[in-house]
Specification:
Blueprint lengths: L3 E3 L2 E3 L6 E5 L8 H13 L4 E6 L2 H4 L20 H8 L6 H11 L2 E6 L2 H9 L5 E3 L7 H8 L5 E4 L5 H13 L5 E6 L14 H9 L2 E6 L5 H8 L4 E5 L17 H18 L19 E4 L14 E4 L10 H4 L24
Parallel strand pairs: 3-4, 3-10, 4-5, 5-6, 6-7, 7-8, 8-9, 9-10
Antiparallel strand pairs: 1-2, 11-12
C-alpha cells in the first residue's frame, strides 16, 4: 500500500490520520505566543506543527495599486504588502521554534514561499515541505523544493485540475518521490457547502497519490467527514484563543477543539474498518434478542400447532421465523409450556 513517511511517521490509508496544526499568522507578532502554540499543538495530540516562511518583500511588493489591494473578506482594505508584513513570521524565530518542537517531540516543518525560504529551512533540517495553494502555479519553486528530496505536501486550493497536474508532474520530474496532495478550498472561512469532499478519492485516483484535506471551515465536522472520504492528512489552523484576534484567528481552532479534532479523526478512521458482513464480537450477545418462534400458549402432547399456539417474538433461542409456515399444522410429541422456544425435536415426525 502506498505510504509517505515524515520524520519516521508513516502516512497512508492504513495509518491513522496525520493531523497538522497550522500556525500561520496566529503568532500575532509574538515569539512567546508562537512557542506556546507549538506546545498547545503537541498537547492536543497533533502530529505536526506547520509554519509559513516568507517575507513581505519575497511574496509581493509595496504598492498601492488597486490590484495590490484586498477587496472583501476578513482582510478587506489591506494592501497585500501590509497584510503579509503583519502576518509574516520573522526568520530569526524559525530556529527557536524548530528547537522547541523537537524538544517536545512534535514534527515541525513549513510552507516555503520562495527559494530563500527553502535555503533557510534546509539549514534547519526541515523534514518535509508544504507548497501552499496559491503557489501551485509556481513551477520553479516546486522544482526547487522537490530537489531537496524531502516529502512534499501540496495544497490544491483555487487550482484547476490541469494546474494540479502540471504541479504534480513538476514535483515528480524534479525528484519528489513522496508526495501528498491536499484537497483544499481557499475560502477564509470556507462554507461547508464548498468543501466538495467527494473530490478526495477522485484526487487520489487521478494522481496515484496519498491525499488529505486542508480545511478552512468553521469547526471540526468537515475534516472529520474528510477522513471518511479518504483523507490521510488533515491540516487545520490553530490559535491559542480566537478572542485574541489576528489575521487568521476567526477560522482557527483553539487547543481544546484541536484535541477534539484529533480524537474525532482517529475515531472516524477506526470506524471505516474494512468491508465486512457477519457478526462482530460487540454484537454477539445482542444476537440472542433477535426474533424466533416461541410457544405462547400451552400445547398438549399430540396437539396440532396453530397460530394460536406459536408466534415470532424475541428472544432468538427458538426456530427462525422463516420456519413458521412449516411448523403450523404439525403435532407436538410432548407437552410444551408457554414461553418455551420451539425446536424441531419437539415435533412428531412427518409420515
Amino acid at each position: 500500500m502506498k505510504r509517505v513517511t515524515i520524520a519516521g511517521r508513516e502516512i497512508g490509508p492504513d495509518r491513522p490520520p496525520y493531523v497538522i496544526a497550522e500556525m500561520s499568522a496566529n503568532h500575532n507578532g509574538s515569539l512567546e505566543r508562537a512557542l506556546a502554540i507549538v506546545a498547545a499543538a503537541k498537547s492536543s495530540g497533533a502530529d505536526a506543527i506547520k509554519l509559513q516562511t516568507y517575507r513581505a518583500d519575497t511574496i509581493t511588493i509595496d504598492h498601492d495599486g488597486p490590484e495590490f489591494m484586498v477587496r472583501g473578506g476578513l482582510w478587506d482594505g489591506s494592501s497585500l504588502y501590509e497584510l503579509y508584513q503583519k502576518a509574516a513570521m520573522p526568520w530569526e524565530w524559525h530556529e527557536p521554534l524548530f528547537k522547541r518542537a523537537r524538544e517536545l517531540g512534535i514534527t515541525v516543518f513549513s510552507s516555503a514561499f520562495d527559494p530563500t525560504a527553502v535555503d533557510l529551512l534546509e539549514q534547519l533540517g526541515a523534514p518535509a515541505y508544504k507548497v501552499a495553494s496559491l503557489e501551485v502555479c509556481d513551477i520553479p519553486l516546486i522544482e526547487r523544493i522537490a530537489a531537496t528530496g524531502k516529502p512534499i505536501i501540496l495544497s490544491t486550493g483555487a487550482s484547476e485540475l490541469g494546474e494540479i497536474a502540471e504541479a504534480v508532474a513538476a514535483a515528480r520530474g524534479a525528484g519528489a518521490e513522496q508526495l501528498v496532495l491536499l484537497h483544499c478550498t481557499s475560502g477564509y472561512p470556507t462554507p461547508a457547502t464548498d468543501s466538495n469532499l467527494r473530490t478526495i478519492p477522485h484526487l487520489a485516483q487521478m494522481f496515484d497519490a496519498i491525499v488529505g484535506l486542508s480545511d478552512h471551515t468553521m469547526g471540526i465536522a468537515v475534516p472529520i467527514a474528510g477522513v471518511a472520504a479518504g483523507a490521510c492528512v488533515l491540516e487545520k489552523h490553530v490559535t491559542l484563543r480566537r478572542a485574541d484576534g489576528g489575521v487568521d484567528s476567526a477560522f482557527s481552532l483553539e487547543p481544546e477543539e484541536l484535541a477534539a479534532l484529533v480524537e474525532g479523526a482517529r475515531t472516524a478512521w477506526e470506524a471505516m474498518g474494512r468491508v465486512h458482513y457477519g457478526i462482530e464480537a460487540s454484537e454477539a450477545k445482542v444476537r440472542e434478542f433477535r426474533r424466533s418462534i416461541y410457544v405462547v400458549t400451552d400445547i398438549g402432547a399430540g396437539e396440532v400447532i396453530s397460530e394460536h399456539h406459536v408466534r415470532s417474538i424475541r428472544p432468538g433461542l427458538g426456530l427462525a421465523p422463516k420456519y413458521l409456515s412449516k411448523v403450523l399444522g404439525r403435532r407436538v410429541g410432548r407437552d410444551v409450556r408457554r414461553g418455551t422456544p420451539l425446536r424441531w425435536d419437539m415435533l412428531e415426525p412427518v409420515d
